[in-house]
Amino acid sequence: MAYRFLSSRIVPPSNRLSRRFIFIFTISLSFMYLCYSILLCSGTIMPNQRLEEHRCVRLKNMGSKKLLQKSHYCTISAKARVISDETRASQEIPPGPPLIGSKGKGAAKHNNQKGHLKVKCHRGLMPRTLDSQITMEKTPSYFVTREAPRRISNMSRETKLIVVVRNPVTRAISDYTQTLSKKPDIPSFEELAFKNRSQGMVDTSWNAIRIGMYILHLENWLQYFRLSQIHFVSGERLITDPAGEMGRVQDFLGLKRIITDKHFYFNRTKGFPCLKKPESSSQPRCLGKSKGRTHVQIDQEVIEQLREFYRPFNVKFFEMVGHDFRWD
Ligand SMILES: Nc1ncnc2c1ncn2[C@@H]1O[C@H](COP(=O)(O)OS(=O)(=O)O)[C@@H](OP(=O)(O)O)[C@H]1O
Predict the structure, then answer these.
(1) Whole-number pLDDT of residue 277
(2) Is the CB of residue 272 below 6 angstroms from any atom belonging to ligand 1?
(3) What phi, psi does 130 have (nearest 5°)?
(4) Which of 35, 111, 199, 224 has the most CB atoms lying inside 10 A of its own CB?
(5) Residue 102: which domain range?
(6) Ligand 1 centroid, distance to 86 Cα (angstroms)
(7) pLDDT tens across 233-250, in order?
(8) Predicted complex ipTM
(9) Of 214, 211, 191, whose CA–CA distance to 201 is shortest?
(10) Is 115 annotated as a binding residue?
């Protein structure tokens, strides 16, 4: 008040007017900032990705009571979330309208951990998605993780799921080849695959074996999702006819068939199909060195024993999904 009084005494009227204008302008700005902050916190405005991540981390560090409170921060919605089991091959998006915004393993890891809030924050880690887009997330371990179906259905019951399956015997050998490349000292495939080989007792506690018992995992998913929400991609056909498999994936997602034959070519050196022109560059692109490695040689008898072992599981799986993947 003293200031106002003094200033009104010594400052001429025109100056007083401009000061009043500056004062009102500053107040308006502060008010706008306040409104913006309130809207942002309630999720009405989509916050940017970095802000989301920061907030998720902040919330993660709060006490356990707070962790169970509804978070306003992880509210980014998506039409569908797509989860694939096996391969990155179906995740590479050739050029075309950006129908799918994809988030990599960062978000996936988040949801793999335990905790209610983390599932919510998982949403916040997804990229921003327009109505015309589908957010896709790929986490191979979801299909075989007990808690995953419940958590995902809690997040969104209408999620569409994509699982890439291949012959479980080949899958086990591929899995072992990959582990061996990282840990060369592990026991032989035979030692790990059997509890007692002469009696044909397969060790189902070994992950490389357990994962291939698809029907058991599927039964777990079917407690939370309808079969029509799950699409199975043939890992074998993904190699021999990638466009055909991608066509079916697009149909399943309700997308126009944009990815077709003309997006792929067979790379003789790699021995696999590659993309002619991926989204991120103008150069053709094959999957990395760790995809499509030469497998460890396994005794034919061992392969036969494992085929026998998997047969009943495969039969039930084919019956359940209504499709014979011809793994015999
Ligand atoms: N186009 C193309 N290029 C290379 N590889 C291809 C392709 N399509 C399918 N595959 C098969 O994908 C297998 C690798 O999948 P992964 O299970 O390692 O993928 S992931 O790590 O879960 O993303 C990989 O298995 P391995 O051959 O055992 O390496 C391939 O057989």
Answers:
(1) 80
(2) yes
(3) -80, 170
(4) 111
(5) 49-321
(6) 7
(7) 999 999 999 999 999 999
(8) 0.96
(9) 191
(10) no
